[in-house]
Amino acid sequence: MLLFSKPYLENLVFGHEGYSFLVLRQFYDVCGELFVVAKNPESKIVAYTIGCPKINTLDSWILALAVAPSYRNQGIARKLTSYLLSYFRQMKMNYVFLTVNPHNTIAINLYLSLDFKLIASKANYFGNNSPRNIMRKDLF
């Protein structure tokens, strides 16, 4: 089942920095149960997260977390992230990494409350003028 006919939520949340439909489609195929969505009562996707283990390591990544603005402050992001963390623990991963825009204090506070630690800041992580904080959570 294809979840995204077009990356509306992605564009709404991330604008020009969002993943394309092509990338989202490939994540859906590759990440399987680690591509998790939340739907409203009308079955419209209102949030999603994507996790992925790093090949040949005990590291894992949260590649995306997006919640539609009208569905924020309802605990959806925490539930989605907690699901991934639980799944990664079951997989016996040692660490979970993610990147977050340093201006996104709401997301940073969520990750800090889930015991992620800031391990680096990169001014041009995705290229020119695209800063990111790199965060890590120890699972064991």
Secondary structure elements and pairings:
Layout: H1 8-14, H2 21-31, E1 35-39, E2 45-53, E3 59-67, H3 76-90, E4 95-100, H4 105-113, E5 117-122, E6 132-138
Parallel strand pairs: 3-4
Antiparallel strand pairs: 1-2, 2-3, 4-6, 5-6
Describe, in plain words, how this protein is organized in 3D:
With 140 residues, the protein is an alpha+beta fold. A six-stranded mixed β-sheet has the order 1-2-3-4-6-5, with helices on both faces. The longest helix has 15 residues. It is globular.
Radius of gyration: 15 Å
Using the alpha-carbon principal axes, give the shape. Answer: globular
Question: Spatial order of the strands in the main sheet?
Answer: 1-2-3-4-6-5
Give the distance, in angstroms, between the N- and C-terminal Cα atoms.
Answer: 34 Å
Largest sheet: 6 strands, mixed
Given helix and strand content, the structural type is alpha+beta
Query: Would you count the extended β strands for me?
Result: 6
Helix fraction?
A: 25-40%
Uncertain residue ranges: none
Question: What does this entry show, briefly?
Answer:
By secondary structure, the protein is of the alpha+beta class.
Keywords:
single chain, 140 residues, alpha+beta, 6-stranded mixed sheet, globular
